[in-house]
Specification:
The complex is a heterodimer of chains A (259) and B (287). Chain A is mainly alpha-helical and 259 residues long. Chain A has one domain (2-253). Chain A has helices spanning 2-17, 20-36, 48-79, 83-88, 93-127, 132-159, 163-180, 184-189, 195-205, 215-219, 227-253. Chain A is globular. Chain B has 287 residues and is an all-alpha fold. The longest helix of chain B is centred in the C-terminal third of the chain and has 24 residues, at 261-284. In chain B, helix 13 (224-241) runs antiparallel to helix 14 (244-255). The chains are: A mainly alpha (259), B mainly alpha (287). The A-B interface holds A 38, 40-43, 45-49, 141, 180, 182-183, 185-187, 189, 203-204, 208, 210-214, 216-217, 219-220, 222, 225-226, 229, 232-233 and B 62, 65-66, 70, 72-73, 106-107, 109-110, 112-113, 115-118, 130-131, 133-135, 137, 157, 161, 163, 166, 170.
Amino acid sequence: MNTIWALAGVVIKEMYRRKDFYVLFVLTALITIAAGMVNFFHDPKIVRYVKDICMLLIWISALLIAIVTTARQIPAERESRTIFPLLAKPVTRAQFILGKFLGCWLASGIALLVFYVFFAIITGSREQHWPWLTYLQAIWLQWAMLAVVIALSLCGSIISAAPSSTTTICFIAVAGILLVGGHLNTVALHQSQPLQTIFYTIYFLIPHLEWFDIRDRVIYDWGLVNWLDCVLATLYAAAYTGLFLLLTWLGFRRKSLNT
Amino acid sequence: MKASPYLVLALALTVCFTLATGIEPRAATWSNRSKSDNVFSMLFGDGRRLFANQFFTMADVYFHSGYYPSIFDLREEGTKEIVAATHDQAEDEEQEKKEDFLGKPKDWIDRFGRHFHITEHTHLEHSNEREILPWLRLAADMDPQKIETYTVGSYFMRQHLNRPREAEAFLREGLRNNLNSHEILFELGRLYDENDHDTGRARDVWQLALYKWSKDPEAVKDNKLAFEAITVHLARLEREAGNWQQAINWFQAAQKVSPDPNALQQRIDEIKKKMAAQSSPTNSQPH
């Protein structure tokens, strides 16, 4: 376990040394503050549009950080050939995969925490109330969703050698699932065979990441999701994360490391 | 002879500045862009009107606190509820059923997913209606000719947020952009009548609205309900002011286009009764 933590620690250090997070955070902060300063009909209590913009930016930024950080992990180690001394030590390939996953996941979690603290300060200063439990649920569910995304990106980085192609494909896949995934059953109903079966198969196979998007509940003050549902969704995310990590390990264990 | 690079740079800057002062006034006349007083029209041109509809829809999404059909959900395309609200149309049970676009869950994924999303049909209330205003402001900036934006915005500001002056300013802005809009004039009349209780101003504005309506061939042909709304409001105003004969005239005008002329006839009869009651004691007085 210590090996996995050591590998994860390196990934976290890499995140705060790189500029990606800082650039995205500053952009999010600037856009949100600029939007918040706009005066609509001299009413300072209008706040939901600021929450909407800020949450959207947080989701985009978190996805970018998670996918970009993960997609370059293994290709970068191979390209710089640091993977050889790393695996020559008593580090198995499974530990290497788990360490990279944990590092990326924790790094995304830290970034998410910073974003949500900013969100709470901005919206709380206008609304004068802080629904901490709702924020806690939102951050937890988003983090659980990011676990699936990170595992998927890690799996993609085994298949594709270039981080840019892995990033692009993963981003399209995740955006597609978030926007269309939940509606594939409705679309399938209006198709003829064999398209209907194909759509239904995809619908039941893909991880339903849209469940974890409770932005609307936060923006429109709809209150908490049932905690049991949160636990079940977490287990669902854990199952898909495990599946993608298993596929990554299966692909990586016999893979030639020469570039 | 070798020129100093600083001198060359200074010369280049001077030439640029001189050229700019000479060309800039002419460049302003090359296109209509510089005449624009709106940053959106400068950035998007006429394409901004596409965004206006989207922003207007966003106002309706906020009015429903996020409970809104996506492009995948089948729903009859009708009047948006923020627009219906301005016509004081209350939702009946049938309408409520139509709004239930989700239906029953189709499978376990759908059923479980609903625990995380908004599944209740509600409308903003208790002054939270203010949350729709940013989207209406943007819609008005994107498409200043979209009249509904002004009437809806004004209605919510004066009726639910107690901000009649902001509502009036928004309507005035709409009127500047749409000089012949009878809809905006009608809404302006309602503001003067219901919020300011300024009967004289309301009467003038509604009469102007009626004139604008009569000069709009499309409205005369297809929008008879607008005529009915204006005339009925004028009739009520005259009735409250005690100008009964005038009130009867307006009600009779409204009857010609109303889908329910009998209801209007009842009101005419009521006024006639009042007129008779008022005149009979005068008649019975001994000379």
